[in-house]
Amino acid sequence: MAESAALAFDRVTAGYGNAVVLDRLDFSLRPGESLAVLGRNGVGKTTLLETLMGNTRVMQGAIRWQGADITRWPAHQRVRAGLGWVPQEREVFPSLTVEENLTVIARPGSWTLQRVYEFFPRLRERRGNYGNQLSGGEQQMLAIGRALMTNPKLLLLDEPMEGLAPIIVEELAAAIRRLCESEGLASIVVEQHPVLALDMTHQAIVLERGTVVHAGPSAALAADKDLLEGLLGVGIAEAPAG
Question: Measured in whole angstroms, how far is the alpha carbon of residue 121 from the centre of its chain?
Answer without folding.
Answer: 22
